[in-house]
Known about the structure:
This protein has 415 residues and is of the alpha+beta class. It contains ten helices and 19 strands. A six-stranded mixed beta sheet has the order 1-2-6-3-7-17, sandwiched between helices.
Amino acid sequence: MNRNTFSSTLEEHFGNNLPNYLETLRQMVEINSFTAHAAGVNKLGQMTAALFAPLGFTAEFVQSAIPHYGKHLVLTRNGRTKQTIGLVSHLDTVFPAHEEERNNFHWREEGDRIYGPGTVDIKGGTVLIYMMLEALQHHAPEQFEAVNWVILVDASEEAEAEDFGQLCIERLEGPDTLACLIFEGGSKVDDTYQIVVARKGMAIFQVKTEGRAAHAGSYHPQGANAVVQMAHTILKLAAITDYERQVTVNVGTMRGGVVTNRVPHEAESWLEMRTFKPDTYQETIDEILALNGQSDVASSVDGYACSVNVNLYRKTPPWARNEATDRLFNIWQETGKSLGFTILPEERGGLSDGNHFWQRVPSLDGLGPSGANAHCSERSEDGSKDQEYVMVSSFVPKATLNTMAVLNLIGAFDE
């Protein structure tokens, strides 16, 4: 197999069949698969299973650990060798049906952009997986038949992904697995592409403050204001943000009190912290937990102090730069160079399924098509807000890059 002629064959194949691929994407986008809408998630799972069935894939559905969420999809096709490659996408989006309707957010083609829920995050990525495997079956059947392919599609990536991460480890971990490739969207500027090699970790915290209620007019001095205490604590939390160390602390919600004529006795906030480096991650967790018990507000009558309780709710450690990921990135970078592309490493702030298994399975991310505005359904006339979209022009080059890189990974080309 010759590299130069085969890349041209792939480009021609992808270009000729692009309308069919986009029609598949349209059908996927028209299914509302909001994480909590299990029926829609499962409907998309069934459609995805049917899409890959003609390529010889067997479907298995695994219920998410969260009972009211949908089912994860595992598609497998056994090969002639022990070489195994995993490919990861997800079924769910962040958009409830009423939000899509309210914002008139649906499939809409405008030039090179296709707008719609999940176009780039991540239904376009699922279609790209199909493009690659369909082209390999058609033009490189010997190589396609040799590999054990395992496609894992998460039902609840946008909410809870820990059980899916464990599922990926169970199905992929071992010396014969060459890579787990994750098809989250990847940025593109002209012929320069970014491939994700690291991601921030995240920790979620709950903060509760308790004070003492009192009549706001007659007995205000006796009160210990839990909302004011929460304000003090929030300012301390916000001050932990350190852009030089790439640490962010975001207090996302706050509630407290009942009525205005009562000194509030309780308040609650939820926040998240993100950072890249494992050491910094743990240090910052410890710094946030150290605020537990740090009271600033007390009754002026008898010194009754507010209490502060900080609880770590969930941890998703960083996906740090590592040798296994860098080894895969080098293959993609060299492949891109041979195709006339510039491939750059990206360390991304958002999480993906890869955060849960990169230490156990060699992983690479950002392999999906390019677009923008993931998680956004709003648009404004002045253009300051725009909806999620995918770029049509990114499908053929990204599919060509990924397919050629996979062939390089398995040593398919003549030297």
